[in-house]
TrEMBL record:
<feature type="compositionally biased region" description="Basic and acidic residues">
    <location>
        <begin position="59"/>
        <end position="81"/>
    </location>
</feature>
<protein>
    <submittedName>
        <fullName>Protein argonaute-2</fullName>
    </submittedName>
</protein>
<dbReference type="InterPro" id="IPR032472">
    <property type="entry name" value="ArgoL2"/>
</dbReference>
<dbReference type="InterPro" id="IPR036085">
    <property type="entry name" value="PAZ_dom_sf"/>
</dbReference>
<feature type="compositionally biased region" description="Low complexity">
    <location>
        <begin position="108"/>
        <end position="157"/>
    </location>
</feature>
<feature type="compositionally biased region" description="Pro residues">
    <location>
        <begin position="166"/>
        <end position="187"/>
    </location>
</feature>
<feature type="compositionally biased region" description="Basic residues">
    <location>
        <begin position="1"/>
        <end position="10"/>
    </location>
</feature>
<feature type="compositionally biased region" description="Pro residues">
    <location>
        <begin position="209"/>
        <end position="224"/>
    </location>
</feature>
<dbReference type="InterPro" id="IPR012337">
    <property type="entry name" value="RNaseH-like_sf"/>
</dbReference>
<feature type="domain" description="PAZ">
    <location>
        <begin position="467"/>
        <end position="584"/>
    </location>
</feature>
<feature type="compositionally biased region" description="Basic residues">
    <location>
        <begin position="97"/>
        <end position="106"/>
    </location>
</feature>
<dbReference type="InterPro" id="IPR003100">
    <property type="entry name" value="PAZ_dom"/>
</dbReference>
<feature type="compositionally biased region" description="Polar residues">
    <location>
        <begin position="29"/>
        <end position="58"/>
    </location>
</feature>
<dbReference type="InterPro" id="IPR003165">
    <property type="entry name" value="Piwi"/>
</dbReference>
<dbReference type="Pfam" id="PF16488">
    <property type="entry name" value="ArgoL2"/>
</dbReference>
<dbReference type="Pfam" id="PF16486">
    <property type="entry name" value="ArgoN"/>
</dbReference>
<dbReference type="Pfam" id="PF08699">
    <property type="entry name" value="ArgoL1"/>
</dbReference>
Length: 1042
């Protein structure tokens, strides 16, 4: 390939802030999961963090400027499987944060704003050399007192601010009223907001790349800084940002080590809580292991690219060097054998092999084995026999078992994280170039017995086809013209980003090379470059199309269609799209769009009997009981599903007022009134970008008034209505309404703009400061009925500080009856794998009323992918302060439900967050120690329960499993608290790491189950406790506002 420099007057620039694909399991993986809350797609609101605008932003140094010493590498602990997040429940909770769109630019305008090209390289049809752009950083800022004037850290850097003004249903911002016996009065309270100061992200300078209009990237704070919530102003007051530059915050509590300073408490047996005993089937196969000594070897393959050929290279090398040995290889770095592979004193054994790649070209590799020790499987047997703690599981031996289980059964599968997929005969089309593959998950589980957990999985894979075919068939684009200005090109560019393709180097030959797509560039007839000789001297100039026609004897069929920039980002390698083919079986770590996700959930959600039949089919295909590798390592695996003892708890009585509590049936109940209704006095309704002929807004108003009064609300006639508002006019309309002292606004939004909801919430909450309730246009035109309006009013009443329902006094768990309890929920939401620069968001909710319905929210922003809440101590200190202001006393007990922690992170949570709870309390009252119950909530696992192999029904709500498949001596249990509307119900696992009050296990199970009935948005029990649900929703609301 001749060398050359591109002779194009336009500069070269690519997508700013492009990030590499994260390793691990793709967020696009979706298990068959049910909906535990009724679909209310007509309601678009999600809970906010306050009902008033915040004032200041604080940043804190997370690392304290200290570097940690490296520790010897330990076996990787099991991490909780990442499945697709539950999206929205019809309430507008989409996956990653939405971004503010830019004004659309033409190709010429984009090229004019781009920089120089990177250095030229060979092995490409076209190459150029842009200069790298320097990253831009902004100094961290910290909030000053209210009287301080703003002082920008870097003058040109704009600091976006997030000011949500709408409370989570049932969540209370900062207090202003005196404490009450049960609930704060409705419609009262002052808000606590949160903010974020972002820095400018590093910008890259790739070659001339076509950039269709795309949202501006959400930029993360610099690593090591945490952004905290701060006290806000009351609803409707003006907002004046006051930010000053300060020094670094003090260092937080040191990062915990792998060794935990605490012990997990033993289970306290109960037997007082009434329950109905039963048995259920779970997707576990019982397994027997022998106390063998297994030799472990480190495998080094040079070169270590391409990754997909490494298993083949290892197989060939093993056949040459150790043809008679049975070896289990993890396809990465470790292999295991029952016998030593060589008996000499040599530390390493090396062999050179040659294999043919996909193009039948020879490739040479060097494979080296190194002795790294012996793994004793007897440690697992001793751990089960002695009921060892969850903090010190024999991870090396468990990892060895997992590798053995994979060997010999999954060669024909495509690995994605810890799941394995195979293309079905007739895959489901997910749209936008993806199709749904089915797969399986398997993992060794060790409690008092040994099991294999087997489950089915689903994931979207790019369809193998020519890139032009994908462009035409899947994206409806015209290949005979440039993509600049074509409708839908943004979706296509998202699809090709980081996509692996095969390129025909000779144009019409058979040899192919594999590349990763970076972006779209100029068409081949417009892109000119200079061909240089061996000394780098320019010889002649031509276009890409001319080059392929004269040098490769290949005429371009679509000369107007853009080329694709592929390969390393410091090189310019361009190909016409017609010469590229999408590689088969590539697992992408990308977020599915809304349509793809809905299709996958619909197709994957199957009744329990169908799911069980799929798992049985997987077991038959795997032939576990006949596998020779398993027999060699003395593994005996049963072929029947394990039946486990279970119990069904009684549902609580729900107080909805009127002196007559209701009894839930199969996790649901009817409510025709609110326990404490709010007042909807000064309100209005507007319609944004909707067709007034399709929406009878007057009918909606009358239904709100009629049903609101039926449910006990004081509802006046609307003081403001306008049904022909554009998105551009909305802010001024809301400002006018606020000047007329309106406090609440119903907004009907169009379904044509997918970002309409996020735009409206930003304007209403960040710019104006008004509570809103969004309703979709399609709901108003097609689905508006009494039940729909009641669902909407559930949210409205909570936003106005009303109380929808509570536990009846006769159903209060024993641990709540004595009073003085603060129930806490905590969660951290991470960006999708392809959003490396987006920060993680942590939220902590805490009850401030006697019956645990009203919650206050604290939030912070921290470095991406960090599961431990760094600022937990300060957040808990603020929560305790709020609780004390309502009760004139600190709580005697704190019950924490912490979501999203895997088994390998138990010690970190205990060393960091559990310690933070006690430290926060000691800062208020150092003379007394609070009683803490700390439960870890785990949803992302693959355990499922079934009534029977032929029974299509889900298990009953309230089903608890706390024997056999859980830890025998620790407080560890599974609970199915909800009735799955569709698909197979996923139980939630709870594991206590602290129980200072020695609360019996059955009382903890009852408390957990009852808290699932206090979710304010529906009259159903949800799948995990309400405080944790609110923390999860608050995190996603924060992402929506960024």
């Amino acid at each position: 390939m001749p060398r050359g420099k591109k002779k194009n007057k336009q500069g070269a620039k690519g997508d700013a802030g492009e990030s590499s694909v994260a390793e691990g399991e793709s967020s696009a993986t979706v298990q068959e999961q049910p909906q535990d809350v009724p679909s209310t797609s007509q309601v678009q609101d999600v809970p906010s963090t306050s009902e008033a605008k915040p004032t200041t932003v604080t940043t804190k140094d997370e690392s304290g400027g200290k570097k940690e010493k490296e520790t010897p590498k330990e076996p990787e602990p099991k991490k909780e499987e990442k499945e697709e997040e539950d999206v929205g429940l019809g309430l507008g909770l989409g996956g990653g944060g939405k971004k503010r769109p830019r004004k659309k630019k033409s190709l010429a305008a984009q090229a004019a704003a781009q920089g120089a090209a990177p250095a030229a390289t060979q092995a490409a049809p076209v190459q150029a050399a842009p200069a790298q752009g320097a990253p831009v950083q902004a100094a961290p800022v910290q909030a000053a007192p209210a009287a301080a004037q703003p002082t920008p850290a870097v003058a040109p850097a704009r600091q976006p601010e997030y000011r949500p003004s709408e409370p989570i249903p049932g969540a209370v911002p900062g207090p202003t009223s005196p404490p009450t016996d049960d609930f704060p009065p409705p419609g009262k309270g002052r808000g606590r907001g949160w903010g974020a100061s972002m820095t400018a992200s590093a910008q890259q300078s790739p070659p001339v790349v076509f950039n269709p209009p795309s949202p501006a990237p959400v930029q993360s704070p610099p690593p090591g800084f945490v952004q905290r919530s701060a006290t806000g102003r009351g609803r409707g007051s003006s907002y004046e940002p006051k930010i000053a530059v300060v020094g670094a915050a003090p260092a937080p509590t040191p990062r915990p080590t792998a060794v935990c300073r605490y012990q997990i408490p033993a289970k306290v047996l109960g037997g007082v809580v009434p329950a109905y005993k039963t048995r259920v089937v779970c997707n576990y196969l019982e397994m027997k292991i022998q106390p063998l000594k297994v030799y472990r070897f480190d495998v080094t393959i040079t070169p270590d690219r391409p990754k997909k050929l490494l298993p083949k290279v290892f197989t060939v090398a093993k056949g040459i060097k150790f043809p008679k040995q049975v070896i289990s290889f993890d396809q990465r770095k470790n292999c295991y054998s029952l016998n030593p592979l060589w008996t000499t004193s040599d530390e390493r054994c090396t062999v050179h092999v040659e294999i043919l790649d996909d193009n039948d070209a020879k490739m040479s590799f060097e494979v080296s084995w190194k002795k790294t020790g012996v793994v004793d499987l007897g440690t697992i047997i001793n751990h089960m026999k002695n009921h060892g703690t969850s903090l010190s599981t024999p991870m090396e031996a468990i990892q060895c078992i997992d590798v053995i289980l994979q060997q010999g059964t999954l060669e024909s599968y495509v690995k994605a994280g810890r799941q394995f997929f195979k293309r079905p005969r007739n895959p489901i089309d997910l749209s936008a170039g993806l199709e749904m593959w089915t797969g399986l998950f398997q993992s060794a589980i060790f409690t008092s017995r040994a099991f294999i957990n087997i489950d089915v999985a689903h994931k979207g894979f790019p369809r193998q086809q020519n890139l032009v075919d994908a462009l035409v068939n899947d994206f409806r684009l015209n290949p005979k013209m440039s993509l600049d200005g074509q409708r839908g090109v943004e979706l296509f560019q998202q699809f090709v980003k980081s996509l692996r393709v095969k390129a025909n180097i000779a144009g019409a030959g058979t040899r192919q090379r594999e590349y990763i797509c970076n972006g779209i560039v100029e068409p081949p007839i417009k892109m000119r470059f200079q061909i240089s000789d061996a000394n780098g001297k320019p010889v002649k100039e031509m276009t890409v199309a001319q080059y392929f026609e004269t040098e490769k004897r290949c005429r371009i069929r679509y000369p107007e269609l853009n080329c694709m920039w592929v390969g390393p980002k410091d090189k310019n390698i361009y190909y016409p799209m017609e010469m590229l083919e999408i590689v088969y079986g590539q697992a992408l770590n990308k977020q599915l769009n809304e349509k793809q996700l809905s299709t996958m959930v619909r197709e994957a959600a199957t009744p329990p009997s169908d799911r069980l039949a799929k798992i049985k089919e997987v077991i038959r295909d795997m032939k576990y009981s006949e596998n020779p590798c398993f027999k060699h390592f003395k593994l005996e695996i049963d072929d029947k599903f394990f039946q486990v003892d279970a119990k069904i708890l009684e549902a609580p009585k729900i107080d909805i007022g009127g002196g007559r509590p209701v009894d839930p049936r199969r996790g649901a109940w009817q409510a025709n009134r609110f326990l404490r209704a709010s007042s909807l006095e000064s309100w209005g309704m507007v319609a944004v970008d909707v067709d007034p002929r399709n929406c009878d807004c007057g009918n909606v108003i009358q239904m709100v008034i009629r049903l609101g009064r039926q449910m006990g609300m004081s509802v006046n006639n609307p003081a403001f209505t306008k049904f022909n508002v554009t998105q551009h006019e909305l802010r001024s309309v809301l400002m006018t309404a606020q000047e007329n002292r309106l406090t609440f606004m119903f907004i009907i939004i169009s379904g044509r703009d997918k970002d309409a909801y996020h735009k409206i919430k930003r304007k209403a909450e960040l710019e104006v400061g008004m509570l809103t309730q969004c309703i979709r246009e399609m709901t108003v035109s097609r689905r508006m009925n009494d039940q729909t309006v009641r669902n909407i009013l559930l949210k409205v009443n909570s936003k106005l500080m009303g109380v929808n329902q509570a536990l009846d006094n006769r159903s209060l768990p024993q641990c709540l009856k004595s009073g003085g309890v603060m129930v806490v929920g905590a969660d951290v939401t991470h960006p999708s794998p392809d959003q490396m620069s987006v920060p993680s968001i942590a939220a902590v909710t805490a009850s401030i009323d006697v019956k645990c319905f009203v919650y206050h929210i604290e939030m912070s922003i921290q470095t991406p992918k960090n599961e431990i809440i760094v600022d937990f101590e300060n957040m808990m200190f603020d929560q305790l302060k709020i609780y004390k202001s309502h009760h004139n006393a600190l709580p005697k007990k704190i019950f924490v439900f912490r979501d999203g922690v895997s088994e390998g992170q138990f010690a970190q949570v205990m060393n960091s967050e559990l310690v933070a709870v006690h430290k926060a309390y000691a800062r208020h009252d150092p003379s007394r120690k609070v009683e803490v119950l700390f439960l870890l909530v785990q949803k992302r696992h693959h355990t499922r329960f079934f009534m029977g192999e032929q029974n299509p029904q889900n298990v009953e709500p309230g089903t608890v499993v706390d024997t056999h498949i859980v830890h025998p001596k620790e407080l560890d249990f599974y609970l199915v608290s909800h009735q799955a509307i569709k698909g197979t119900a996923r139980p939630t696992r709870y594991h206590a790491v602290c129980n200072d009050g020695n609360i019996p296990s059955d009382e903890v199970e009852q408390l957990t189950y009852y808290l699932c009935h206090l979710y304010s948005r529906c009259t159903r029990a949800v799948s995990y406790p309400t405080p944790t649900y609110y923390a999860h929703l608050a995190c996603f609301r924060a992402k929506s506002l960024t």
